[in-house]
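Q: Could you fold this chain for me?
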Amino acid sequence: MAAPLDSTPAWHAVAAFAASAGDVRIATLFDTDPARVQTLSRDAGNLHADFAKLPVTSETVARLGDLAAAADFDGWRARLFGGAVVNPSEARAATHMAERGVGSAADVAAAAPGQAALRRVAEAVRADASVAHVLHIGIGGSALGPALLLDALGEHGDGPAVHVVANIDGVALARAFSQCDPARTLVVIVSKTFTTQETMTNAESALAWLAAAGVAEPRARCIAVTAAPKRASAWGIADDRILPFAETVGGRYSLWSAVGLPLALRCGVAAFDALQAGAAAIDEHFRDTPFARNLPAMAGAFDVWSATFRRQPVRAVFAYDERLRLLPAFLQQLEMESNGKRVARDGAVLDYPAGAVTWGGTGTDAQHAVFQLLHQGNHPGPVEFVAVIRPGHALGGDHHRQLLANCFAQGAALLRGRTVEAALALSGGDPALAAAKTFPGNRPSATLLLDRLDAFTLGQLLAFYEHRTFTAACLTGINPFDQWGVELGKEMANAAQDSGGAAGTFDASTADLLRRCGL
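A: Sure. Below is the predicted structure, expressed as structure tokens.
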């Protein structure tokens, strides 16, 4: 068994360096390094990242590079791309890249039939004038990814309207029903195992809705997307309407498979192809670029620097583009389900945080809601701004100028703050008012800038976040591809339904709540 990562000289060197840096004033780092912006910017494809407002230097990059070597980052990256086991708790590879044509030849070949079936079904549905609406039923990665794709790209699509339903709360399904004509609705059921309780319950309700509306054969109006095609067939889905993907494709990484069917239905196969091509371009950058110049690798390393070594395990992401308003929710699953772990790959309990709490919102809305805490709260953590150079509308330049100006100004304000002296001058000498108007500044942030937002660039953006998450896992020694905490929640939910408030099954509080609701 390899020595624990936190016992290596590289780990201790990073920890000591972080401790010695203390509460470094980021603004002074600009004064001492005129080339700081160039030194701490990275580019890949249509993405540009500015890390200069983070409390890092060239020495930080070098020490994190040493940690990457100690963590065998190159080896784990090679395993990921080679189709080897990178998910030891389930003895699995992670082959989501094969869905976009990258990885081992065997994995790419194995993904090809599912990809071909996706395209065949998408083109057939788009050509069928009787289909005006699609109900896409899934949960977790089976819904978050497709919903993001549709919200970002679907506005100008010419295919059927797609409604994504995830929540078991019947309100979600009822609202979708209200927007659909059952005689012209297709139901897409997405479940890796085809046993996911929420998804299958919603699917049964969708069948009942179709039947109640006079649809003669509701199951004939269904498409299944699953890694368990035999279960879908037994459930009553015709074999030519079952779109398979591999068990080695995790839910939060699955939108590249037939799980991404909604984009192909709404916007066409060409859009889905462009999404995958953009992701593949970042795959190649991540695979081939040395660590210190590698955009996803450096972003992941800086995440570890903040969460693990500076003990700021909270990261806010704000999308300054309405089309990316679902990005923070998507990243919450990607990052927290992947890296929210308490043990290393070998089961050793960690005594350091290995992931951050990801949260966020949409600019400029969030500025009028949560930014007060970011500027003056007592628990600062890094903030990430995501913006797009080209606007997604034709309303004139003033909208986009204001949007981008606000985005960049927030980062500047977080950095600069406002001194007591300046606040006193604005407060007529009133010390209490001046205290309220004083901002400590020195709040770290980074900015990710996209040239434009189209299917190709969105593919780049999402692949960037995937590889960033993988890098952070490598540098903290954990497995980012399992999610046993999610499984525990499922087990307890099943027990709550099966046993209700039976004595001894649950704690007294939970049992009482179950009884009060008649469960």
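A (continued): The longest strand covers residues 314-320.
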